[in-house]
Design goal:
By secondary structure, the chain is mostly beta strands. The chain has a domain of about 230 residues. Helix content is about 15%, strand content about 50%. The longest helix has 27 residues. The N and C termini lie close together (about 10 Å).
């Protein structure tokens, strides 16, 4: 998979689930049975797990980006915002209700139609609603977005005009597609966005989702009980990130489902691969661990019989792993 789509490093915003009953508004079936992880399929399992974490962030990021981002410019590579958040926020909170209003996209092609209902023109409030309909919206930085996002504000504190706030928003994405680097990922799901930009340019975001359907040119997958946390520290030069993720993925690229979770937080320089971090991938009585050796290289530790002992180590670069 292309680096822009595969790497979660730059995703500035992520989704999280509405409620905890494990059911989705989209009604996808539960994950299939797991399978034994071995030296022959360990790299593929790790690749799918890592890309699943990145894919959920990509789809979610655009959903949250319009009007709600506290991130600094350059914080994202996958989920680049299609429109300037400061301009959108100032526009939308001035209208009671508002829209549909059509905005041109930063890249010069495509549009975003935004409508909603804001209770207080000075801020955001609980139950305020947004609907964003992207039509091949080019962000000017290599990302094109198409599809529909609906959002309902659950919690908000801070100053939206200054860009320093805490927000949680229940969100639906419907056939939302993101094209970057010549590849497209499409997804549908229901979730909750969380953003804390009160210490901007240090920004933290979260994703805690029940389910997300993902489709690319080569695969389909269903994420369940997924979660991700990302921080972007623009106070550092160059800027730094840290992320953790967990979930279960049932992918057409694998013979069954796998679980994944971060054992050691991934961290590094924004726009690059992580230089530290460990991701545990669990199969049927077996595991694989993705270990970031540095920003160029990784190691995969295979425990094929689940006895806690590494049976085989596979060394490769990040690019080899994600483009293999």
């Amino acid at each position: 998979m292309n680096r822009k789509l595969a790497c979660v490093l730059g995703a500035s915003l992520v989704l999280a689930a509405c409620g905890g009953d494990g059911e989705s508004l989209f009604g996808e079936p539960p994950p299939s049975a797991s399978f034994p992880i071995s030296s022959s399929n360990g790299a593929a399992a790790v690749r799918v797990a890592w890309e699943s974490a990145g894919g959920s962030g990509a789809l979610a990021g655009v959903g949250a980006g319009v009007g709600l981002s506290g991130s600094a410019p350059g914080a994202q590579t996958i989920a680049a915002q299609a429109l300037s958040p400061e301009d959108i926020v100032i526009d939308v909170v001035s209208l009671l209700p508002f829209g549909p209003e059509t905005f041109g996209c930063a890249g010069g092609t495509g549009t975003a139609i935004i409508s909603g209902n804001i209770t207080n023109p000075e801020t955001l409030s609980r139950d305020d609603t947004f609907r964003i309909e992207y039509d091949m919206c080019d962000d000017g930085a290599g990302t094109v977005t198409d599809g529909i996002v609906e959002m309902t504000i659950a919690e908000f504190t801070g100053d939206v005009f200054l860009g320093t706030f805490q927000v949680a928003a229940d969100t639906l994405v419907d056939s939302l597609s993101i094209t970057a680097g010549g590849e497209t990922i499409t997804g549908s799901g229901d979730a909750r966005v969380t953003i804390d930009s009160t210490q901007a340019p240090f920004v933290s975001t979260g994703i805690y989702g029940n389910s997300l359907l993902q489709t690319t040119a080569v695969s389909t997958g269903s994420l369940t009980n997924y979660a991700s946390d990302l921080t972007y520290d623009g106070n550092q030069v160059p800027a730094e990130f840290a992320m953790g993720a967990s979930g279960t993925i049932d992918s057409s690229l694998l013979p069954g489902s796998i679980g994944y979770s971060t054992e050691v937080t991934f961290a590094g320089i924004a726009g690059s691969y992580p230089n530290t971090g460990t991701l545990l991938v669990e199969g049927d009585k077996s595991t694989a661990r993705l270990v970031a050796v540095d920003a160029e290289n990784v190691r995969i530790d295979i425990d094929s019989d689940g006895d806690g002992t590494v049976d085989e180590m596979i060394e490769m670069t990040w690019d080899e792993l994600l483009n293999g």
